[in-house]
């Protein structure tokens, strides 16, 4: 095992000792020595199985077989989640074969950031994660269940399900993916048309044609954004069956994997004699593995907040510095858009997760002594699933890359580090994704141009006012101000300016899309403008240094001058009204800082 990875893991264990011990004591107290429904009154239990068939009722009357909860993020507007429509029937049938019962415990909301980018609904995106966690908790609160199956894929959905899973850590839990859509037009072509549209060279019809050719069928979007980063992270933590993440939907292998996942959940319950609750299974080593794999593949920066949040739900304390220090010791092994031209299907064909596991394990970059839903250790995850006589079996995965432009080796990586840098300076602390940056663009020192909404930047771009070296400062986008919306609409105009040869960077207390990274962006800035951050005092023309090599983030204005400046005031301008935003004020006001997960759920006295 890499000594530096070990040292960081030990640092996290030491930091988390008190909260982790209290958490483990909590889930130990919540477990049952028999089926959980045995603790219900007759009236409680009658309500719990009233809608079941006679055979299911008979099973649930006894204490010998498990009742498995299904929690699903199905809706048929999200391409990634549309395949889940048929999963409950498949799961119920599979678990019936084991002698148990599966019940649909609850559905959770699932919004698509691709639909809400640049729209008022995006202000609810991050908060939807906490709503999903709470919705899942309601579904599991009936105490009927001995295990759980979580059906979710996209941006805030998997992190919300993970927070809830850790909260109900006494239950064995298996995550069930649905797979990516077939590859559409190349991602570079899509990006090119977006930039043409930003420059006014093509119209809406041409842009819609390109977007529709990219996002064109059921399944997860194929670029390596937050959705596919989620799937990779969940598999590396051992919560998926090996190789399940990127098998296409509506295929025989996909259905066989779903049936196998359902049966695997029953093998981990108290009744199986092989009890493995998810809160015990996922520990500090599992979390470090998740971060290592995210960094090795140049995954979504959104996960910097999400991993902090769901680790906290398990009593494990992670911070931005952990990401930074792990990044310094983890090489970049994949080139998947936006870090390259390939998509997730190309990654799968080049060797996929099995090959990634082999490379990381061979280099000592993953803890191999972790627990997974398949037992102890990660060797099983170097195998790949295939169908044999209608059943899924696992065979040895590839030993070398099928495309060296997509998956590299640890001896000849694409970059020596994981492509994530924490920037610090008088402006605060932020995250910079460097894995997608072209050589020479990592450092920008230029005058600030200040905006308080991404639409203002777009207007200035269209007016030709940004044809210069600059650091775009987009403030009052943080958790407490706006709910921390993604600012993906900024990518095309800033990329156009960069392609014209200007030195361009972004500083914001908001987020960027998981598919961003071409333009250096100091994002997730803490403290945010509404929380006393110095970004509220920046003025257009101030010199700012964004340095992705040294980790510097500096506003080059004297302390004397800054002390004399008044901080800008947040202008609500209707951002808290409409599209449901008015009912989320209580949550927005209670979101924590980005470097503590931007979460509204955890009070210190409640978390354990």
TrEMBL record:
Pathway per the UniProt entry: Carbohydrate metabolism; Entner-Doudoroff pathway
UniProt keyword Metal-binding present: yes
Top enzyme class: lyase
Highest taxon of source: Bacteria
Dihydroxy-acid/6-phosphogluconate dehydratase C-terminal domain span: 405-598
Keywords associated with the record: 4Fe-4S, Carbohydrate metabolism, Gluconate utilization, Iron, Iron-sulfur, Lyase, Magnesium, Metal-binding
Pfam families: ILV_EDD_C, ILVD_EDD_N
Catalytic activity: 6-phospho-D-gluconate = 2-dehydro-3-deoxy-6-phospho-D-gluconate + H2O
GO function terms (MF aspect): 4 iron, 4 sulfur cluster binding; metal ion binding; phosphogluconate dehydratase activity
Cofactor note: Binds 1 [4Fe-4S] cluster.
Binding site residues for [4Fe-4S] cluster: 154, 221
EC number(s) on file: 4.2.1.12
Cofactor: [4Fe-4S] cluster
The keyword Iron-sulfur is assigned to this record: yes
Sequence ranges assigned to domain Dihydroxy-acid/6-phosphogluconate dehydratase N-terminal in this UniProt record: 68-379
GO biological process terms on file: D-gluconate metabolic process; Entner-Doudoroff pathway through 6-phosphogluconate
GO cellular component terms, semicolon-separated: cytosol
Family label: Belongs to the IlvD/Edd family.
Function according to Swiss-Prot or TrEMBL: Catalyzes the dehydration of 6-phospho-D-gluconate to 2-dehydro-3-deoxy-6-phospho-D-gluconate.
Record NCBIfam families: edd (TIGR01196)
Identification of the protein by name: Phosphogluconate dehydratase
Species in which this protein is naturally found: Thalassotalea agarivorans
């Amino acid at each position: 095992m890499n000594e530096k990875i070990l040292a960081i893991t030990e640092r996290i264990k030491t930091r988390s000792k008190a909260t982790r011990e209290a958490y483990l004591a909590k889930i130990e107290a919540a477990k049952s020595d028999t089926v959980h429904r045995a603790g219900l009154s007759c009236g409680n239990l009658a309500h719990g199985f009233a809608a079941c068939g006679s055979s299911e009722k008979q099973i649930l009357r006894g204490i010998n077989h498990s009742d498995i909860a299904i929690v699903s993020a199905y809706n048929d507007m999200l391409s990634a989640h549309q395949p889940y429509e048929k999963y409950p029937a498949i799961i119920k049938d599979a678990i019936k074969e084991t002698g148990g019962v599966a019940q649909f415990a609850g559905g959770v909301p699932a919004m698509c950031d691709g639909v809400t980018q640049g729209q008022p609904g995006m202000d609810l995106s991050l908060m939807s994660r906490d709503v999903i966690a709470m919705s899942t908790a309601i579904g599991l609160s009936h105490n009927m269940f001995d295990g759980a199956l979580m059906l979710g894929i996209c941006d805030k959905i998997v992190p919300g399900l993970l927070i809830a899973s850790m909260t109900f850590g006494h239950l064995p839990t298996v995550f069930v993916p649905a797979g990516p859509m077939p590859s559409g037009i190349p991602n570079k072509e899509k990006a090119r048309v977006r930039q043409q549209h930003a420059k006014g060279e093509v119209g809406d019809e041409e842009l819609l044609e390109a977007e529709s050719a990219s996002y064109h069928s059921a399944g997860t979007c194929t670029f390596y954004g937050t959705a596919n980063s989620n799937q990779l992270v969940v598999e590396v933590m051992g919560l998926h069956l090996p190789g399940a993440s990127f098998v296409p939907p509506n295929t025989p292998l996909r259905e066989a994997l779903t049936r196998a996942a359902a049966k695997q959940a029953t093998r981990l319950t108290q009744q199986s004699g092989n009890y493995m609750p998810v809160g015990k299974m996922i520990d500090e080593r599992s979390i470090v593995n998740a971060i290592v794999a995210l960094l090795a593949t140049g995954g979504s920066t959104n996960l910097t907040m999400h991993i902090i949040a769901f680790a906290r739900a398990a009593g494990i304390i992670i911070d931005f510095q952990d990401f930074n220090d792990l990044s310094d010791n983890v090489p970049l092994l994949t080139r998947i858009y936006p870090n390259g031209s390939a998509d997730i299907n190309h990654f799968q064909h080049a060797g996929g997760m099995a090959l990634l596991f082999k490379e990381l394990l061979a280099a000592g970059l993953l803890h191999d002594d972790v627990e997974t839903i398949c037992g102890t250790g990660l060797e099983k995850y170097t195998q790949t699933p295939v169908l044999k006589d209608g059943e899924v079996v696992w065979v040895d995965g590839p030993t070398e890359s099928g495309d060296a432009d997509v998956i590299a080796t640890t001896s000849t990586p694409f970059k020596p580090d994981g492509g994530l840098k924490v920037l610090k300076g008088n402006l605060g602390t932020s995250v910079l994704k460097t894995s997608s940056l072209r050589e020479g663009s990592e450092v920008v020192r230029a005058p600030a141009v200040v905006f308080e909404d991404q639409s203002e930047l777009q207007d200035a771009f269209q007016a030709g006012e940004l044809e210069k070296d600059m650091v775009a400062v987009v403030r009052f986008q943080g958790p407490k101000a706006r709910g921390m919306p993604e600012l993906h609409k900024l990518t095309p105009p800033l990329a156009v300016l960069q392609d014209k040869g200007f030195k361009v960077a972004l500083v914001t207390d908001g987020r960027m899309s998981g598919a961003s990274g071409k333009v250096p962006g100091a994002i997730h800035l803490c403290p945010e403008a509404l929380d006393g951050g110095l970004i509220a005092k920046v003025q257009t023309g101030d010199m700012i240094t964004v340095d992705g090599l040294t980790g510097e983030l500096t506003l080059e204005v004297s302390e004397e001058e800054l002390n004399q400046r008044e901080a800008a005031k947040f202008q609500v301008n209707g951002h808290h009204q409409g599209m449901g935003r008015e009912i989320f004020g209580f949550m927005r006001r209670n979101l924590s800082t980005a470097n503590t997960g931007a979460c509204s759920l955890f009070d210190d006295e409640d978390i354990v």
